[in-house]
Amino acid sequence: MIDTTSLRYFLEQKLPPTLDLLRQMVAINSFTGNPEGVNHLARLTAETFAPFGFSAEFVPSTNPLWGNHLVLTRRGRSTRSLALIAHLDTVFPPEEEARNNFVWQQEGDRIFGPGTHDIKGGTAMMWLVLTALQAQARELFEDITWKLIWNSSEECFSPDFSDLCKQNFDKETVAALIFEAEGRAERPQTTDHRPQTTEQRTEDGAQRSAVRDQRSMVSGQWSDFRVQGSGFRNQLPRGLVVARKGRATWRVSVSGRGAHAGGKHPYGANAVVELGHIVQRIAALTDYSKNLTVNVASVSGGTGLNRVPHAAIAEGEFRAFTPEAFETGRRGLLSLAGPGEVRSVADGHACQVQVEILTESSPWPRNAGTDRLFGVWQKTGEDLELPVFAEERGGLSDGNGIWDAVPTLDGLGPWGDNDHCSERSPDGSKLPEYVEISSFVPKAVLNVMAIKRLLSGMEG
Prior knowledge:
The protein is an alpha+beta fold. It folds into two domains: about 5-245 and about 365-455, Aminopeptidase (3-Layer(aba) Sandwich); about 245-360, Alpha-Beta Plaits, CATH 3.30.70. Strand 1 (about 55-60) and strand 2 form a beta hairpin. The relative contact order is 0.18. Helix content is about 30%, strand content about 25%. The protein is elongated. The model is unreliable at about 185-230 (pLDDT under 50). It contains ten helices and 22 strands.
């Protein structure tokens, strides 16, 4: 049995090397479109986990412009396996990092830098959790086969990664745990399994933490850090992700008929005017009661001011949590194809509307397997006086592609904010991505104890 007091002390001692690992990873630009950087990070990650006994496999992406996926395997004494999942890439090109001086920078409890939160902080959390399990639950650690899998191109919705994961799953795979960032909430949450909406997540602000623990660096070494108090009371509730919206991208093309805007105006069929009608109908497909959102993201059309436009294009996306709502959005878009409302006054020539679904990532809906895993973390949180709530998140993760293969839970990483942001303004109205140091140890305690409960069959 793991004593939580000794576990916390152990994790506190391992926090400095955890943050040193994070700093090394953040120093590597791993923008999706920088395969050399992604592969560099993959090698560092493999080297970091090698002392645990993991063997590495670097799997080329099906897209030659992207880096290699990484699969680390450590065989256990039993056939049971547990998969831990993250990704290597970030959204920040090297030029953007340089332009905004977006580098590792600690300010009190926050560490700013590319990937500190999404998702290199999650990889650091994986290392911290495995370090604790190996030291404090050795028999359990040795019994399980561990599969650690990193996506090289998650930020670009890698089409082949889910297949790679499923190739590494089998009937003895207990769960897939994804180390994207946790959620937070300010107000008390119920302890049932009812989902929390994205809107219930905390906005940026100093009010998140009652106390900002300060850290400093002395001669390049992290100073000692303690989680205050004898328990986790007064901690803000942590959100674990139990569902994610699916996403489809679309393009609507309108073909009209060009004409001279002065001499032949009645003969024209204005594609831009037709598109104006269409985009309003597209926007009206949004149905908040079904958590279906449809976004018109870009429009273009026409060339010269003296021409009736003969072509116009709109592109966007739609998202939904359930397959039923997702299909409603899909059908609604496709129903817009055909003859348009705008016609030539001279001879009735009608604009034609074409609708294309460009890409699709299926929803990850609420399901029994995920809810069972959430129950394990929730019960563990109750034991630790560390409240946990279920969160449905509007953004995608690798969970969208694997939840139907094995029970999947997301949000096991640390807390931070401002993902995908690199700018900082003098007045503080713009802040870049950051992770909070004080979130690591409590979340690691929760993860270690919940994994032990899960693998020991103590789910009740």
